[in-house]
Automatic annotation (TrEMBL):
Gene Ontology molecular-function annotations: acyl-CoA dehydrogenase activity
Alphabetized UniProt keyword annotations: NADP
GO BP terms, alphabetized: bioluminescence
Residue ranges of the TM segments: none
Record keyword Glycosyltransferase present: no
Gene source species: Algibacter marinivivus
InterPro entries for this protein: Ald_DH/histidinol_DH, CoA_reduct_LuxC
Coiled-coil positions: none
Record flagged with keyword Signal: no
Protein's name according to its UniProt entry: Acyl-CoA reductase
Domain of life: Bacteria
Length: 352
């Protein structure tokens, strides 16, 4: 299968997903194999929501829109242009996927197949309904994929390289189990935002998207703020208030109530507004419904701190603070070339 054939197949998948990327699902004309797959995918969406309470309509729709926007001919060609992707000796690449947000492992799945390798997928039990169905669609629009895509619920075997994502504890297990194989091993990371105190209301509203999207469960979600000494949070709380309906979701509300009770019983100082809490803490990983913050006085010192802990940070959100920063509101809108942990997966896949 040539590269252009693989690109064309994923573009058709993007066209298929576009039908499900708005609040109202609408069947479109001229989508290949729609009669076979449209209603079936609607059913898979229903199963995904029933199986995982964090996978709400809004969050699944957001994920599908992100991928339908990404899977265009222009985007795929721009992404792949820096690489020399020629016919290679296909390897079997295992992917151990996380399940914290819908289709969180899709970029790895796409990368393996677009580079010309075969993929062996072991999914998280939290996100097991969507990707196998989309893989079936790919096999229909490009039958040559039938020999290159496999899913397993058992221990992965017969693979040449691996991309594995998990917690810090599972990452240590992965490193031991997969030693001797070419690998990308990812562990826990969190994202931070740097505020100067000069942010507009629109900036802070955009930041709230980085905080609350997917309930804060993604590694690209902002879980920690760095604010200047003496920063007043009134404008921040005002700007994020439009997210208050989030507390109507039972799983979020349970976490909010539990964490609030823990903080109150422990007599921790924190600020809250009825659906969200902020707490001064040096940690990067904050619980659901909570954002940690830390004061800073000197930009240079803060940059040194962030650089010393860069292996714990996925994204830095700011405006003019540092290179490779991400704009307010953009953490959950990565481009295809925005690699997790800054590890170039295509370069890795072309080297094995």
């Amino acid at each position: 299968m040539h590269l252009q054939e693989r690109i064309d197949a994923f573009v058709k998948l993007g066209d298929f997903l576009r039908q499900f990327s708005n609040e109202v699902i609408q069947k479109a004309d001229n989508i290949e194999h729609n009669e076979i797959f449209f209603n079936g995918f609607k059913h898979q969406l229903k199963l995904a929501k029933e199986h995982n309470g964090w996978f709400t309509d809004d969050n699944i729709t957001f994920a599908l829109k992100s991928w339908s926007d990404a899977l265009t001919t222009d985007n795929l060609r721009t992404w792949l242009k820096p690489y020399s992707i020629k016919d290679l000796n296909p390897r079997n690449v295992a992917i151990i996927m996380a399940g914290n947000i819908p289709l969180v492992g899709f970029h790895d799945f796409l990368s393996v197949l677009i580079s010309g390798h075969h993929v062996l997928v072991k999914q998280s039990s939290n996100d097991k309904h969507l990707l196998p169905f989309l893989a079936k669609y790919l096999k229909y629009v490009e039958p040559q994929f039938k020999e290159t895509i496999e899913f397993t619920e058992e221990k992965v075997k017969n693979f040449d390289a691996v991309i594995a994502t998990g917690s810090n504890n599972t990452a240590r297990y992965f490193e031991y189990y997969f030693k001797g194989k070419p690998s990308i091993i990812r562990n826990n990371r969190n994202s931070v935002a740097i505020l100067s105190g000069n942010e507009t209301n629109e900036d802070l509203k955009n930041l709230s998207e980085d905080i609350f999207r997917y309930y804060g469960l993604g590694c690209r979600n902002v879980s920690k703020l760095f604010v200047p000494k003496g920063y007043k949070f009134d404008k921040f709380f005002e700007a994020i208030y439009h997210w208050h309906p989030i507390v109507e979701k039972a799983k979020y509300a349970n976490n909010y109530d539990y964490n609030k009770a823990v903080y109150l019983m422990s007599e921790f100082d924190m600020l809250e507004n009825g659906f969200f809490m902020i707490k001064e803490d040096e940690s990067f990983a904050s619980p659901i419904a909570t954002l940690f913050y830390e004061y800073y006085e000197d930009d240079s010192e803060l940059k040194d701190v962030l650089n010393s802990k860069k292996d714990q940070i996925q994204c830095i959100v700011s405006n003019g603070f540092t290179e490779n920063e991400i704009a307010f509101g953009a953490t959950q809108k990565p481009q295809l070339w925005d690699y997790a942990d800054d590890v170039d997966s295509i370069k890795f896949l072309l080297s094995i």
